[in-house]
Amino acid sequence: MVKDPKKPRGKMSSYAYFVQTCREEHKKKHPDASVNFSEFSKKCSERWKTMSPKEKGKFEDMAKQDKLRYEREMKNYVPPKGQKKKRFKDPNAPKRPPYVSAFFLFCADFRPKIKSEYPGLSIGDTAKKLGEMWNSSSAEEKQPYEKKAAKLKEKYDKDIVAYRTKGKVDSGPAAAADDDDNEEEEEEGEEEEEEDEDDDDE
Description:
This protein is mostly helical and about 200 residues long. Helix content is about 70%, strand content about 0%. It has two domains: about 70 residues, DNA Binding (I), subunit A, CATH 1.10.30; about 110 residues, High mobility group box domain (DNA Binding (I), subunit A, Orthogonal Bundle). It is built from seven helices and no strands. It is globular. It is found in: Chromosome; Nucleus.
């Protein structure tokens, strides 16, 4: 399912603004240098911890302004109409891969590193930190995850086509009806993933 382009962009935290500023500073100093994302994130985190409340104040003000912007836009936002009915899911249908979005692949890579650096961090705070890291990543850093996600999606789509073709040959109209059910389940799964990603972005 296509994400609604009119939906307001998720609000950024003070830490996300800080990382964004660090990235801009690094690019000005080293315009041609490639960035080791893991090392860069670790340095940003260490620097953030040593900053005084006064130094963090600028970024907290930026986050507050962005929160007001987000709340204002959400008040005026009207989500697309239309509800879907849940139907029976065919147990023989190909299973969706667990990581079909670039963000989830990114989380799978970086969650263990976050846990090792912050052993006492709760699941919610870990998800929040991953969301902040993803938001502050450049398009170049996101590209490998987007490519991998596209390949997984392509394989899944091929499996679905093969399943549907076989079903229609084997069972005729009955299989075709199951295909429709399967498609709806696929769309619902995508919706859930988008909601999770939005939550992390926030």
